[in-house]
Design a protein that fits this description.
The chain is α/β, with parallel strands linked by helices. It is built from 24 helices and 33 strands. The structure holds a DNA duplex (12 and 12 nucleotides). Zn(2+) 2 binds at residues 518, 521, 536, 539.
DNA sequence: AGCACGCCGACT
DNA sequence: GTCGGCGTGCTC
């Protein structure tokens, strides 16, 4: 008798362990670790992952696996091990770790149905009978609305009904119907004559097969080509002349796209020097982490491409992570252009089904390269030859929900196992990575020159306070308007960047200063022009924009702050003849909208591209000669120890959007704090000075990379509970950590309430703390009961990116 | 997470 | 005497 240890799909502390199941006789040879199964669990059925098969089990009453979901394991043994590592590293549940590694389509969905267990429908209560007229199974959801649960419960007790627990997949394989001919082509020509003359359509269909000399065609195409309906096709099938088959197909998000084949470019001296140690590491199967520090436009991508070529030549596979590539279609083009069908693409712009299909291409070894966002780091390759993380400093590589992993850490862990290099590329590396390269933990590869030998565009810092003093109260400085006008006259393009994070358009009463806040979260509501709505970005609460101040009834209530819409309106006033494309959540919501807008801009259908963070990366348009940053310092005032670093990175990146080709570029940065070092140094493209300055601050304030961080956030509907629990946690921590370690808190979180839950936090800053994980587990165990029964939540983020 | 089981107060 | 509230504990 064989048994399987299964991790079940119940993300809770008490079920965060393996449960044993019998493997039915017929599957004994089939079931292997890494497969998904459906198992009975209590009264219901749920999905689970087999992590081990064995010949003995300690348990006496063991149920059997009820269904096999995979014939090939969806988790390789490496990924199973990686999952184990993830749970330990991030203190998450095993099931959460496994689910994070697979496309969402493979997560189960649960439904309940009621089944009739008696032959005599009339035994049921009157209201229920109608539901079982045609069929003896009905979805519970359908019934629930019109019949009380009590009545249903009674019927169950009397044995007339039973609850059926269903496990469904979120998305299935896409299939199409294929029509094949069942006879030889010669026989078909004869059949045309034999068919009754009034069967015109059927004759047409057969003729389509004979004239085109084809064996099969997709039903959909046939219907169009032969201009017919499926009744005629069905008739032919029933006559045995044609037959129908179901074929599995991939949803191809890039189906209608043609990718120009590109050839390798000559590497310049610097690139050559950078690629040499990388190729050595690839060919000798050595694990190294390289930090490729290359200014924007220095040709990092070409180095990536040529090293990938080497990896593929060796019969191995590669993963390339990019921040959010639906945002940079140009990047996809470069990879697809060079490697064609060897590439799978995984990013958030794809539908669940499309992601699933791309993932299966990887699993079936139909591709050797995956280009994708964060979660692509879990691509089920078994013969990895290299991992590249482009724009290494991007905060989107850190997942902000469980499991709170950083793709960089996962990459290094996997690369160690596969004995292959990791390349971290950036023009503005994180301080952590740069510090490691200085200590020789990472190997530094430097690209200082831009490929086209162009110097970086000139940056002008405009002091908005002075503008204000000289009477300009608009959001555009005189200088910016001048330069924009200049571009309009010359027919060149501009990009305007609104750094919105920090404050968006909140609604305030000018008389009493009242700010409208979310009733469930301690955060001001955001004004959305569409439908005059006020929305909460944290809990989704919506209300109507009031006409008068709810506090003092004054009519002088209006929205403040700058949204892209408002900027656009103002811009049109100042430059009435400019053509503007606005890019923000509102205009890019629909699938593909993003790319369309960029294409339009690329075709010079607009003069000015106006947008938020999303236009900061990867844009490369030859005629853009001016980049304007409307307010550079909005991010600086956030309670985030990386605020300066992020500002520097963003400004550097935005500046890189101008003058990438023949025409020289220019950058205007508007700010209220022109003296701030991250703005000053970004304008001089002086990463090294920024690094030194910021490192000193991090040292003084005990932040990374000098200290590691752990952030514990406690939340509960009652503030007293939250405070007392956080205090208790701090107590436990204090008793268990080294002297050197600093514990901050308890303090209220920067957003003290979200969705009617109060939030308190405490921060641990440590250098060496080998028992931290043990202590944190102790804390979780200590509060376990209250967490499951009393609505208490404790979120632990080991190495948080922000304090929020 | 669900769900059953069990113990206590408020009703036909 | 029963219905239904939710605290407790289990799921191979």
């Amino acid at each position: 008798m064989k048994y399987a240890s299964v991790i079940v799909d119940v993300p809770a502390m008490q079920t965060d362990r393996a449960f044993d199941y019998k493997i039915p006789e017929e599957w004994q040879e089939l079931v292997t670790p890494g497969m998904r199964v459906i198992v009975p669990f209590g009264p219901r059925k749920i999905q689970g992952f087999v992590i081990e098969t064995k010949n003995h089990s300690e348990f006496k009453r063991i149920k059997a696996i009820s269904e096999l979901l995979d014939l090939t394991p969806c988790l390789t043994s490496e990924l199973l091990q990686l999952g184990q590592w993830l749970t330990e590293k991030t203190l998450c549940f095993k099931i959460s770790a496994f689910q994070a590694m697979l496309p969402a389509a493979m997560k189960a969905k649960y439904e309940k149905a009621l089944g009739l267990t008696t032959d005599d429908v009339t035994k049921l209560a009157d209201q229920l009978q109608s539901f079982f007229m045609n069929g003896n199974q009905v979805d519970l959801k359908e019934i629930e609305q019109s019949v009380s649960l009590k009545m249903i419960q009674k019927e169950i007790e009397q044995g007339h009904l039973e609850v059926i627990y269903k496990v469904k997949q979120k998305t299935n394989k896409k299939t199409i119907k294929i029509i094949k001919r069942n006879e030889s082509l010669i026989r078909l020509t004869e059949l045309i004559k034999e068919l009754p003359a009034n069967a015109k359509k059927q004759i047409e269909i057969i003729s389509y097969f004979t004239t085109n000399e084809i064996n099969e065609i997709a039903l959909q195409d046939l219907l169009i080509e032969a201009n017919t309906s499926d009744t005629s096709v069905k008739a032919l099938i029933s006559k045995g002349i044609l037959k129908e088959e179901i074929k599995e197909v991939y949803r191809d998000p890039y189906q209608d796209r043609h990718f120009e084949k590109t050839k390798r470019l000559m590497l310049n001296n610097e690139q050559q020097q950078a690629i040499t140690p990388l190729l050595k590491s690839i060919n000798e199967n050595v694990h190294d982490v390289f930090l490729m520090y290359g200014v924007t436009g220095s040709g990092k991508t070409e180095v990536y491409l040529q090293s990938i070529e080497e990896v593929l030549k060796n019969g191995k596979e590669a993963i390339v992570l990019v921040p959010e590539i639906s945002l940079t279609p140009q990047m996809v083009h470069r990879f697809k252009g060079r490697f064609g069908s060897k590439v799978a693409v995984l990013h958030s712009g794809l539908s669940t089904g499309e992601k699933y299909d791309e993932w299966r291409k990887i699993q079936r070894k139909e591709v050797q390269l995956v280009v994708g966002a964060r979660s692509a780091i879990f691509a089920p390759f078994e013969n990895l030859g290299m991992i590249i993380i482009d724009e290494e400093h991007e905060s989107s590589y850190k997942q902000e929900e469980n499991p709170r992993y950083h793709a960089r850490d996962v990459a290094i862990y996997r690369a160690k196992l596969h004995k292959c290099p990791v390349v971290l590329g950036s023009a503005t590396p994180t301080l952590e990575s740069f510090a490691r390269s200085k200590k020789d933990v990472y190997k530094l590869l430097t690209l200082k020159e831009r490929v086209n030998k162009r110097s970086m565009p000139r940056v002008d810092i405009i002091d908005l306070r002075e503008e204000l003093r000289s009477g300009n109260r608009s959001m555009f400085s005189t200088s910016l308007i001048e330069k924009l006008t200049e571009r309009l006259e010359k027919g060149e393009q501009s990009v305007l960047f609104l750094n919105r994070r920090g404050y968006s358009s909140f609604v305030m009463c000018r008389d009493c200063g009242f700010v409208i806040q979310c009733p469930h979260c301690d955060i001001s509501l955001t004004y959305h022009r569409h439908g005059q709505q006020l929305k909460c970005h944290y809990c989704g609460h919506e209300e109507h924009m009031p006409n008068v101040c709810p506090e003092c009834q004054s009519e002088h209530i209006r929205f403040f702050g700058t949204g892209t819409q408002k900027v656009e309106e103002e811009l049109v006033k100042v430059l009435p003849h400019s053509r503007i494309i606005r890019m923000d959540v509102d205009t890019t919501g629909r699938k593909g909208a993003h790319e369309k807008l960029l294409t339009r801009f690329g075709n010079k259908e607009a003069d000015i591209l106006l947008g938020t963070q999303m236009i900061a990366k990867g844009l490369d348009f030859p005629d853009v000669t001016l980049v304007g940053v409307l307010t550079a310092d909005t991010m600086l005032n956030l309670p985030d120890f990386r605020a300066s670093e992020k500002t520097f990175q963003l400004l550097t990146q935005v500046s890189g959007r101008a003058g990438r080709h023949e025409l020289p570029g220019e950058v205007i940065i508007q700010t209220y704090t022109p003296e701030h070092y991250s703005i000053q140094l970004a304008s001089q493209y002086d990463y090294d000075s920024f690094y030194n300055h910021e490192m000193q601050l991090r040292k003084n304030h005990a932040y990374p990379p000098y200290y590691y961080l752990a952030l514990l956030t406690v939340s509960h509907p009652e503030i007293t509970k939250v405070v007392s629990v956080t205090e208790k946690i701090v107590q436990i921590l204090r008793r268990n950590v080294e002297n050197e370690t600093k514990i901050l808190g308890p303090v209220a979180s920067p957003i003290p309430r979200i969705k009617d839950r109060y939030r308190y936090q405490c921060m641990v800053k440590y250098k060496r703390e080998k028992n931290l994980h043990v202590t944190l587990r102790k804390i979780i165990e200590h509060f376990q009961q209250e967490m499951s029964s009393n609505d208490l939540m404790i979120a632990i983020d080991l190495s948080p990116n922000t304090m929020m």
